[in-house]
Amino acid sequence: MKTMNLKLVEKIKVPHGVTVEIKGTDVKVTGGTVTNSRHFRSGDIELRAGASAIEVYAKSTKRDILAETKSIASHINNMVIGTQKTFEARLEIVYSHFPINVAVKGTNVEISNLTGQKSPKKAKIIGESQIEVKGKEILVKGHNKEAVAQTAANMEQATRARGVSAYLTVQEGCDKFCTFCGVPYTRGAEGSRSVSQILEEANRLS
Fold this sequence. Notes:
- It is built from four helices and 14 strands.
- The chain has helices spanning 63-82, 145-159, 183-187, 195-205, and strands at 7-13, 18-23, 26-31, 34-39, 45-49, 53-58, 87-92, 101-105, 108-112, 121-124, 130-134, 137-142, 171-172, 191-192.
- Strands 1-6-5 form a three-stranded antiparallel β-sheet, covered by helices on one side. It has a three-stranded antiparallel β-sheet with strand order 2-3-4, with helices on one face.
- The longest helix is centred in the middle third of the chain and has 20 residues, at 63-82.
- The mean pLDDT is 86.
């Protein structure tokens, strides 16, 4: 029977007070009231938990397997760090014409009135990530770095214009005075922007 040669790729320090459980490629890291767990779908690594470190081995010295092993080690390191600190991602609400409203509804973030659309855009909140909306700033925080990053990415993806790189206002105000709309009272009479203003903003947005 051929003996498998393992290559030690990373050795991750485990802080005092943090416990690690490893079953195959299932990793569970606990520190205080925080627990990060993850299953890694790889048959090319071996994980070992010691008293003060997690050892990450590759079952081959092939370049792609070593790269995968290093990536998994980085994820495990973030799991350990997450038991000691809170990861944060900050986003800014930006609009030029239609005021955008952002609110947390259950396990989703709902973005309303995006470019005047009637139906709100929804972005899924991953894991136990928390969302705080303060004025034009959105703060995503949590103890799982990947979950925080993916939640922020989901919001960016939900608000991304399909086939459009920017919106340019050519007309402002309104003279219609519809009973359900306050634009004539807040933005004044209908009027078109000058060609020079439109060209200047188009150049700035491009």
